[in-house]
Amino acid sequence: MTTAAKYDVTISADAELPIIHMTRDFDATPAQLHRAHTDPELFARWVGPDGMDTRIEHWDARTGGSWRYVAGRDGEEYGFYGAFHEIRPDRIVQTFTFAGQPDGVALETLTFEDLGNGVTRLHAQSLVDSMEGRDQWLASGMETGVEEGYAKLDALLGEIDG
Amino acid sequence: MSDDSLSRVFAALADPTRRDMVARLAVGDATVGQLAAPYDVSMQAVSKHIKVLEEAGLVSRSRDAQRRPCHLEAEVFDLMTKWIERYQQRAQERYRRLDAVLAEMNDGAAHTSNDNNDNPGLDPTIRGAAS
Asked: Which domain holds residue B56?
């Protein structure tokens, strides 16, 4: 659980545009990575966060389709929804909204770059509404919007430091 | 550092002029006049920017020196870096779970809805691409 991952995630925030870039390599083919992002059962297993159950309520992973899922724990539930703008073997473009902040919408572009030797690089780019929105997202981890998520993360970080 | 003050820091840095000022202060202390020089804006506007940075705790100004140079509080940046690291940690955690899912796919052990032909949500061409 706390063993170091083989590959690190790289995150950078664009200085001029409200964009977050992430890259991460995986021991997988582009097709496998694609499937892990479009198959609802596989997706629900990793999207997290840890300790939360992800319940897919709607899932139509086709160009022009849409999705909605709920992450829940101890009776608390957080909904997320969006549209699959474009699904291609090497690229997924989708929107992302946290139901608790319905005015905010991120445009996410995922690309799967085949590096050969069974390694694929995931590029994830999120364009959000404003610099403020982006920076608050970075600061608060809009993924859960839960304060206690930080405590959990602190504990995890503590274990890693120790 | 509370969430509110962190939001103030991020909000202060959301402005490109202020980010530029911070970048220049990272090199060394500077007076308001020195900071204003490259910009085509009034001293008043520059003072306003500095006030926002001051209120966010990013910049301090000495009380006694006559020129009252602006000084960058590097400590605040350490805290910000920590927050971005947390975000990174969360992403890393998620992708580690994805690693596990992908490893199972490599072993051919993943039982998924792709195995069922009665899921209308999945485009057959995607299934084809993924198999």
From this structure: 3-73
Better-scored residue on pLDDT, A156 or A12: A12
Query: Which tens digits make up the pLDDT trace of A85-128?
Result: 999 999 999 999 988 888 889 999 999 999 999 899 999 999 98
B91/A35 touch (CB, cutoff 8 Å), yes or no: no
Q: Which pTM value belongs to this model?
A: 0.61
- Confidence category of residue A137, pLDDT binned at 50, 70, 90: low
CB-CB contact of B87 with A141 (8 Å):
yes
What domains appear along chain A, each with residue ranges and CATH number? Answer: 14-161 (3.30.530.20)
User: Residue B108: inside a domain, yes or no?
Assistant: no
- A90: closest CA among A32, A43, A26? A32
- DSSP 3-state percent helix, strand, coil across chain A (nearest 5): 25, 45, 30
Interface test with B, best of A32, A84, A92, A143 (most B CBs within 10 A): A32
Residue B37 lies in a domain: yes
CATH code at B58? 1.10.10.10
Q: Which residue among A39, A50, A132 places its CB closest to the CB of B114?
A: A39
The partner residue sitting opposite A26, judged by closest CB among B92, B102, B112, is: B102
* Domain count of the fold of chain B: 1
Contact residues on chain B for A12, CB-CB shorter than 8 A: none
Can you tell me which residue has the tokens 């405590």? A151
Q: How far is CA A13 from the centre of its chain?
A: 16
**In this predicted structure, what is the pLDDT of residue B49?**
93
Is B131 domain-assigned?
A: no
CB contact under 8 Å between A130 and B114, yes or no, is no
